[in-house]
Amino acid sequence: MTTRTPFIAGNWKMNLDHLQSIAFVQKLAWSLKDAKLDYGTVEVAIFPPFTDLRSVQTLISADKLPLKFGGQDVSAHDSGAYTGEISGAFLKALDCEYVIIGHSERRTLHHETDEKLAAKVAAAITHGLVPVLCVGETAEDLEKHGPSAVPVAQLRGALASVKTGANIVVAYEPVWAIGSGQAATPAQAEQVAAQLRATLAEIIGEEAASATRILYGGSVKAVNIAGFMREANVDGALVGGASLDLAEFSSIAQFQKHVGT
Ligand code: PEP
């Protein structure tokens, strides 16, 4: 079990419009309040589409909800002629605390390279956002190079310019496990998370590495979260599909109830 504050994050991808986001966040907050979730022992964050962020910010701020939120991507640029892009400054102005960078869908569908992701990580940090950097191997990578080589290389690439002591979150998301219903085993996740932490120590220093939350992502559900959370180097989960199901996501956030069973 982790000694860091666990982090349960929901990546909504391109789902739920701003009106649906308000209803969802309200119900999630009620569900976790009913369950008497102690937010001092777990951080719960959602990553809605950009167009929902203002509504989510307004609701969370007005109702003083103890939920965190962030963007699903950020521009490497601060401002200017970059049609369609969203600056870290804009996300910060909406009270985003986190931003997902390097999700496998962006690496694959938008051809985001490690170099580009390094620029996005730098931009996020410049604007006071905590990057949630996603790394993970495909099934082919796994067969050719084993589980850790590609995620470790992606980590080094995207953190090329970060300084000692940087505050980041890393999400280990094997591509073959995302949306497939076939999660990694807790032991597989732990093995890669330990390698990532050792690599982080070289990049940002021992102290920052031991404070960094490393999440597992890929077909996480209420039924399998406890196994991951029992591992020493897994500090939470980045949840895709199940984060759109209120009962599932609420139950995942309450993983402490399942861990001892
Ligand atoms: C994701 O897309 O980040 C993810 C982990 O998806 P899922 O939970 O649906 O596998």
Structure in words:
With about 260 residues, the protein is of the alpha/beta class. It has one domain: Aldolase class I (TIM Barrel), CATH 3.20.20.70. The chain has 12 helices and 8 strands. It has helices spanning about 20-35, 55-60, 90-95, 105-110, 115-125, 140-145, 150-160, 185-205, 205-210, 225-230, 245-255, 255-260; strands at about 5-10, 45, 70, 100, 130-135, 170, 215, 235-240. It has an 8-stranded parallel β-barrel with strand order 1-2-3-4-5-6-7-8, surrounded by 5 helices. Helix 3 links the parallel strand 3 (about 70) and strand 4. The model has no long low-confidence stretch (mean pLDDT about 95). Bound molecules: phosphoenolpyruvate. Phosphoenolpyruvate binds near residues 11, 217, 218, 220 and 240. The site of phosphoenolpyruvate has 13 residues, from strand 8.
